[in-house]
Amino acid sequence: VALTGLENVFHTLSSRRCFSPAHRSSVSLGRLFFIYQTGYALNLVTPSAEIGGEIARGVVLQKYMPRSEAASAVIINKFAYSIARLMAAATLAGLTVLLFPLRRSDAWVLGLGAVLTALALLAFAWFQARGLFGPALTRLAWVVGRKRQARVRLQVEELDERLRSYYRENA
């Protein structure tokens, strides 16, 4: 339990690094920790594929910063966390192949899964850094109707710009 708490403290600290410099001090670390815990709890108790908690974080963060800043910070944070998880999984998969007797086909499946996941994450980073996240969301918004699609288009343009600027500043 203590290690999980420590992990969450470090995750809170890293979450703050996902804000643009102008907004890093708009939420205290204590409050940000509780915002993170709220999202974490929602992810644990709901079958939302770890997305429901991210939405909750974004909604709460909007009280302290613009919507596009909150959304881009949550997206960047989730992406960075996915990279950390992928590195841990790759390390453990490599150790599994080295330490346990596996059939050659099982070792290939482990390796192929790790490579495909890494490629998907790299593609998602490229997608965000090129400002293609908004157009994709806008195309998906046609499901809810043309009026909402126009509203989504306006909101995601600012989100795309925040994502691009984050990657320019931190690449």
Main beta sheet strand tally, sense and closure: none
SS summary, helix count: 7
Radius of gyration: 18 Å
**Mean pLDDT, rounded to whole units?**
84
Structural class determined from secondary elements = mainly alpha
pLDDT < 50 runs, ≥5 residues = none
Shape: globular
What is the straight-line distance between the termini? 35 Å
| Number of E strands | 0
Strand content: under 5%
- Helix % is over 70%
Q: How do the helices and strands follow one another from N- to C-terminus?
A: HHHHHHH
Please write out the topology.
Elements (H helix, E strand, L loop, with lengths): L1 H16 L11 H17 L6 H10 L5 H33 L4 H26 L3 H8 L5 H25 L1
Helix pairs in contact: 1-2, 1-4, 2-3, 3-4, 4-5, 4-7, 6-7
3D structure, described in words:
With 171 residues, this protein is an all-alpha fold. Helices cover 79% and strands 0% of the residues. It has helices at residues 2-17, 29-45, 52-61, 67-99, 104-129, 133-140, 146-170. The longest helix has 33 residues, at 67-99.
